[in-house]
């Protein structure tokens, strides 16, 4: 079998065009504020990419860049100002934050109705109970890629490799809400390969280059590779051994060009959702 490649770039472009059309029909542009503290090079690239994508979709994007020595209280003031600004519908504080600032305190201070990352405890709780309006972007993108594949979720066995708050746990909640039978695996899982082999759907979000081998995959399974790993030779690879797994899986996402573009498109979609809810 040769897996069908799920083209996240193309799907994201379609979603961004839909968002742009919806945004253009609104009396006020949906506003997205992205806050960057410090000069982490990877964070700076992410923030620039988000800002550019938002502008291209016709959103009112602003990036607030603060020095690395910003205090927690100063950042809380910025969040309070953005919470109170009616032109700002979505607030994203780029992680990681410098050590003097508690990410938990900052996330809790964001108005849940503007929490386009879906990380506020209220939104996490709503996702767990199946009533989320703003859900985390990467898991939303994953669910759209599974829909693109036409994979039946109801009754399917899904395994999520990784239990982080930004990917593993929320995507497990979404799969459960879609009636899949969900296993969440992590670094203490006894036999990862055996758990994986039972799965019709594999979501790999561990951050370990090419951990998932072809003999872990049930023939015909759908694989969503969330991992982004830079090798010593400069190559970017996922958490899945792509070429060998292509010979076994039914569907697979590439890295790059799979989940990554969908994460950004879903951030724009969350901003549109927040703007529509505020209207
Ligand atoms: P994270 O917070 O570091 O969590 C990694 C998870 O993987 C943890 O639950 C950990 O288990 C588990 N794990 C680590 N090594 C393992 C192993 N050998 N076997 C089984 N489980 C293992 O990572 P994350 O933030 O979720 O990100 C995961 C990957 O996705 C990274 O490569 C990241 O760059 C990428 N990512 C991509 C996007 C995108 O848009 N494409 C978005 C977010 C993240 P424990 O809990 O037991 O430690």
What does this structure look like?
The model has no long low-confidence stretch (mean pLDDT 97). This protein has a 6-stranded parallel beta sheet with strand order 1-11-8-7-5-6. It has a 3-stranded parallel beta sheet with strand order 3-2-4, sandwiched between helices. A two-stranded antiparallel sheet has the order 9-10. The longest helix has 20 residues, at 259-278. With 279 residues, the chain is of the alpha/beta class. It is built from 10 helices and 11 strands. It has helices at residues 8-24, 41-56, 72-84, 103-109, 121-129, 137-149, 168-177, 192-197, 242-246, 259-278; strands spanning 4-5, 31-37, 60-66, 90-93, 157-161, 181-185, 201-204, 222-225, 229-230, 236-237, 251-252. It starts with a strand and ends with a helix. Helix 7 (168-177) links the parallel strand 5 and strand 6. The protein binds NADP nicotinamide-adenine-dinucleotide phosphate (NAP). NADP nicotinamide-adenine-dinucleotide phosphate binds at residues 138, 161-164, 166-168, 185-189, 192, 205-208, 211, 226-229, 259-260, 263.
């Amino acid at each position: 079998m040769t897996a069908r490649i799920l083209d996240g770039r193309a799907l994201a472009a379609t979603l961004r065009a839909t968002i742009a059309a919806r945004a253009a029909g609104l009396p006020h542009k949906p506003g997205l504020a992205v806050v960057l503290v410090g000069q982490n090079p990877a964070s700076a690239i992410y923030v620039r990419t988000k800002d550019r994508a938002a502008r291209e979709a016709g959103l009112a994007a602003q990036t607030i860049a603060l020095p690395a020595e910003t205090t927690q209280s100063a950042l809380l003031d910025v969040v309070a100002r953005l919470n109170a600004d009616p032109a700002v519908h979505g607030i994203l504080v780029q992680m990681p934050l410098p050590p003097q600032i508690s990410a938990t305190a900052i996330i809790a201070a964001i108005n849940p109705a503007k929490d386009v990352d879906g990380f506020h405890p209220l939104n996490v709780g709503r996702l767990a109970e199946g009533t989320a309006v703003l859900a985390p972007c990467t898991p939303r993108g994953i669910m759209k890629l599974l829909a693109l594949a036409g994979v039946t979720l109801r009754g399917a066995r899904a395994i999520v490799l990784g239990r982080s708050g930004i990917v593993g746990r929320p995507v497990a909640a979404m799969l459960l809400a879609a009636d899949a039978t969900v296993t969440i695996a992590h670094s203490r899982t006894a036999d990862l390969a055996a758990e994986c082999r039972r799965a019709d759907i594999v979501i790999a979000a561990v951050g370990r280059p090419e951990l998932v081998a072809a003999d872990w995959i049930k023939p015909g399974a759908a694989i969503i590779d969330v991992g982004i790993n830079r090798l010593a030779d400069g190559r970017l690879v996922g958490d899945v051994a792509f070429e060998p797994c292509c010979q076994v899986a039914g569907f697979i996402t590439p890295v790059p060009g799979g989940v990554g573009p969908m994460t950004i498109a879903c951030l724009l979609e969350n901003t549109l959702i927040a703007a529509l809810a505020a209207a």
